[in-house]
């Protein structure tokens, strides 16, 4: 992965924390979005995930589910737990990708293994649904 100036890395971490604690509303500026896109293009999984959130919510960029899934997938393939969780949601809901419960469970399992509590909850619910379907 490319090396980033420390200021850019700090900005990505700050935006990631703000997304997790406050949601996406009001976090993106034209300048911030450009810097975020630069970091995402250079392979930062944190930046790719935040950019996925931006496209999913239409914050600082036009709302675009296809772009959101693209950025989530790039980050998820690097092992980013939040992106894996979001990609699982996309497969569960059939957002741009074909609806596929097995694929959703695959991504939630990866995210859950990394400690993502929301993925752990959805993975547990998916297992419960499977168990109840078999009885």
H-E order: HHHHHHH
The CATH C-level class name of the domain at 45-134: Mainly Alpha
- Count the beta strands: 0
What is the average of the pLDDT values? 84
User: Which structural class do the helices and strands define?
Assistant: mainly alpha
> What is the fourth-level CATH superfamily of the domain at 45-134?
Tetratricopeptide repeat domain
Number of helices: 7
Q: Mind telling me which CATH architecture of the domain at 45-134 this is?
A: Alpha Horseshoe
Q: What kind of sheet is the major sheet?
A: none
| Shape estimate | globular
Q: State the separation between the terminal residues, measured CA to CA.
A: 48 Å
How big a fraction of the residues is strand?
A: under 5%
Which assembly state applies to the chains in this document? single chain
Portion of residues within helices: over 70%
How big is the Rg? Answer: 15 Å
**Any low-confidence stretches, pLDDT <50, length ≥5?**
none
Do you know the CATH topology of the domain at 45-134? Serine Threonine Protein Phosphatase 5, Tetratricopeptide repeat
What does this structure look like?
- With 135 residues, the protein is mainly α.
- It has a domain at 45-134: Tetratricopeptide repeat domain (Serine Threonine Protein Phosphatase 5, Tetratricopeptide repeat, Alpha Horseshoe).
- Helices cover 73% and strands 0% of the residues.
- It has seven helices and no strands.
- It has helices spanning 6-22, 30-41, 45-57, 65-76, 81-93, 101-113, 117-134.
- The model has no long low-confidence stretch (mean pLDDT 84).
């Amino acid at each position: 992965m490319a090396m980033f100036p420390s200021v850019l890395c700090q900005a990505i971490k700050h935006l990631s924390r703000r997304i997790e604690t406050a949601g996406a509303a009001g976090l993106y500026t034209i300048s911030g979005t450009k810097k975020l896109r630069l970091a995402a293009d250079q392979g930062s999984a944190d930046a790719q995930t935040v950019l996925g959130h931006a496209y999913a919510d239409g914050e600082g960029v036009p709302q675009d589910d296809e772009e959101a899934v693209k950025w989530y997938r790039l980050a998820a393939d690097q092992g980013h737990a939040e992106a894996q969780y979001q990609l699982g949601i996309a497969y569960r809901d059939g957002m741009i990708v074909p609806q596929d419960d097995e694929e959703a469970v695959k991504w939630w399992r990866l995210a859950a293994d990394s400690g993502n509590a929301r993925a752990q909850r959805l993975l547990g619910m998916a297992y419960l649904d499977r168990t109840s379907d078999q009885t």
